[in-house]
Amino acid sequence: MLRRRLRQLIDDEAVKAAIGEAERGTTGEIRVSVSTFFWGDVRKTAERAFERLGMTATARRNGVLFFLVPSRRKFVVLGDEGIHEKVGQAFWDDVTAAVAGRFREGDFTGGLVHGVAEAGRVLALHFPREDANPNELPDDVDFGE
Known about the structure:
- The protein is an alpha+beta fold.
- It has helices spanning 2-9, 12-23, 42-52, 81-104, 108-126; strands spanning 29-34, 63-69, 74-79.
- Helix 2 (12-23) packs parallel to helix 5 (108-126) and helix 4 (81-104) runs antiparallel to helix 5 (108-126).
């Protein structure tokens, strides 16, 4: 029941399409994970999801994860070490602020699509597409299933 409600909050096909579009210009990888309610530290749980989803296994360590816990009104944007060393914390803070604005309006899909596009834009600057550009990770939204 709760997973079905989460799927109603977020148009996973629109987010998947945004991820595909964002990744078209980069070797970077973007994932979105939506969690049910839990007690505990959201950032630490996001870091575990980063590992669980294989984000640290990308060739250039340039994965970006949007981790949401809608029931707690919290989310985290994490970048792997390859992209983080290029953009620094200020970039993640800017993306978080932009996404949070949309989320506050109840537009979870719009917030994610906007954040994914911005992450893709910056990934393309630092990790442009190559001739052989494999999609290392799935573009599907992870609902923890």
